[in-house]
Structures are given as structure tokens and as C-alpha cells.
Write a structure and sequence with these properties.
- By secondary structure, the protein is α/β, with parallel strands linked by helices.
- The chain has a single domain, classed as Rossmann fold.
- The protein contains eight helices and ten strands.
- The strands form two sheets. An eight-stranded mixed β-sheet has the order 5-4-1-6-7-9-8-10, sandwiched between helices. Strands 2-3 form a two-stranded antiparallel ribbon.
- It is globular and about 45 Å long.
- The model has no long low-confidence stretch (mean pLDDT 92).
Length: 288
């Protein structure tokens, strides 16, 4: 696998995905009972943003200044985004960052771990050996957290249903494979078959609308429970950018989660816009 997320860490797609992930966890934690957080494509856990300017052989423009870099300066973000930003700053400080300039960015495993309660459990899966080794080192002393070197799609069959009978599953593949949308749809179907009451969140890029529409059709064919679609675009359709936005599809979203998502996306659409025409959109694919 050629993908190394540190080239993209902290970009607008990470900000959108991670801000919503923090709110999803908090919404589920309104109930006292513990939950399983399952991350199917966990990556290495932490990212040095200085490495984002270095490709495999050539220097490259880092992506984080257009994402988290726009949000770390003193500001007044909405409450729905403020906790995410506080966790990012806290992680950077713990990792050795200094001053106002952000150096270290947490991946989804650390954001989930920092927000977890004692009764919650984390299962982190990463199939790329070097990335998994880094992830295992990151979490070797973290209680109630397991790291598995395995295909995240297989993990859905291996780890569901959980003994907690509550789960938040993040499916966040690199979208290198041409059939990745189909794999995510199949994974959602497998997850629902094994644990119909779980909350499943699947991230996807917005490059070609036709691929996304085919993906939605495949999800609808599963006869899913209430399903929410959250999308952020940072530029309009006429702007020549390969990836103008990204989305998160959430099956079995917590009660009234769409209201928090609307506030998150409204703020991010303005803060992260790269060209005219960007927007934040929340809609039901399958109504409650």
C-alpha cells in the first residue's frame, strides 16, 4: 500500500471527519453504559505535520495549513467544534509541540482515546505493518485498548457484536482501490447483519459525484436503518480541484445528532473554504 496519511494529516477532510467523530462519541456517551469504539483503518495514531511537506522523493506543499492550520489561532468556534480543537491542542502539547504553531496532530484513535470514559473500550485495526507497529507503540500503555494488525473489513466480522452491546464503528479507508466504495458498502452490510443496533460512520471523498451516487444506491439496497449523510465542500463544482470535499455517512445516528452536525459543518464551510461555492450539507438518506 502506497498510502501514508502523514502527507494529508490535518487537512480539511481530517478536520471535518474528526470534529464530527468527537461529537458522535459525546452523543453516545450521554448513556452511562460503556461502548466499543472500533476503528477499521486506524493508521499510526499521531502525525508530525512537519513530515507533510515531504513526499517519497520530492518536497510538496503540506495540506494541513488549509485545514487545522486555519483553526488553531485564538478564535471563538461554536461549542460543537471547540472540544475537538481543545483535544488537538492538548495532544500537540503532550507530544512535545511548543508555541502557537501546531506540530503534532492526533489521528482518530487518539481523539477517541482522549474522549473515552473508563467503561469504554477501543479496538484499533491497521493492516499495513509499519503503520500498525507505530500504532501499537503509541497505545502500548493505554488501558482498555487493543491494536490489531488486520484488514479492517475483516475486523467487522471478528469484533461484532461486542459484549458491551453498544458500538461506534469508524470505517475510514484510504480510497486507493478502485472498488473502495463497494467495499465500504459491503462492510456496512456486514456490520448491520452482525450488529443491527451499532452506529456506523463511513468516510468518503467527493471527487466524482457518480461514484457517490452509486455508493448511496448500494447502501439503500441494504435496507438500512435511519441513515444520515454529512458533506463538506470547500469549493464549487466549477473549480478545478480533484477533491472538492468529503462526506460522512452515519447509520443509526444518535438522537438529534443531525443538529450538532449542522452547526459543525456550517462553521467549517466558512472557515475552510478554498474557493467560492463551498458548503456544508446535512440530509437524511433514510429518514428517522
Amino acid at each position: 500500500m502506497n498510502y501514508r496519511h502523514h502527507f494529508h494529516a490535518g487537512n480539511f477532510a481530517d478536520v471535518m471527519k474528526h470534529a464530527l467523530l468527537v461529537r458522535l462519541m459525546r452523543a453516545m456517551q450521554k448513556k452511562e453504559k460503556g461502548l466499543l469504539y472500533l476503528d477499521t483503518h486506524a493508521g499510526r495514531g499521531r502525525y508530525d505535520l512537519a513530515a507533510g511537506a515531504t513526499g517519497d522523493s520530492l518536497a510538496r506543499a503540506p495540506e494541513w495549513p488549509g485545514g487545522i492550520g486555519r483553526l488553531v489561532a485564538p478564535a471563538a468556534p461554536p461549542e460543537a467544534v471547540a472540544e475537538y480543537l481543545a483535544l488537538v491542542r492538548d495532544f500537540d502539547h503532550r507530544a512535545g509541540g511548543a508555541g502557537d504553531r501546531l506540530r503534532f496532530y492526533p489521528g482518530s484513535p487518539w481523539l477517541a482515546a482522549m474522549g473515552a470514559r473508563p467503561q469504554d473500550r477501543l479496538a484499533l485495526c491497521e493492516r499495513q505493518p509499519a503503520e500498525c507497529a507505530a500504532l501499537r507503540e503509541e497505545f502500548q500503555f493505554t488501558p482498555r485498548t487493543s491494536v490489531q494488525e488486520m484488514d479492517g473489513y475483516v475486523a467487522l466480522r471478528a469484533m461484532l457484536p461486542p459484549p458491551e452491546r453498544r458500538a461506534l464503528v469508524l470505517i475510514d479507508p484510504p480510497f486507493e482501490a478502485q472498488n473502495e466504495f463497494a467495499q465500504v458498502a459491503t462492510a456496512l452490510g456486514e456490520g448491520l447483519r452482525r450488529f443491527p443496533g451499532g452506529v456506523f460512520a463511513g468516510w468518503y471523498p467527493l471527487t466524482e459525484r457518480a461514484h457517490v451516487d452509486e455508493f448511496f444506491a448500494a447502501v439503500l439496497a441494504l435496507r438500512p436503518p435511519p441513515t444520515l449523510v454529512l458533506e463538506l465542500t470547500v469549493a464549487g463544482e466549477m473549480v478545478p480541484m480533484k477533491m472538492k470535499g468529503c462526506g460522512l455517512i452515519v447509520l443509526n445516528p444518535p438522537w438529534r445528532f443531525e443538529r450538532e452536525a449542522e452547526r459543525v459543518l456550517a462553521f467549517l464551510a466558512e472557515a475552510l473554504a478554498q474557493a467560492p461555492g463551498g458548503d456544508g450539507n446535512v440530509r437524511w438518506l433514510v429518514p428517522e
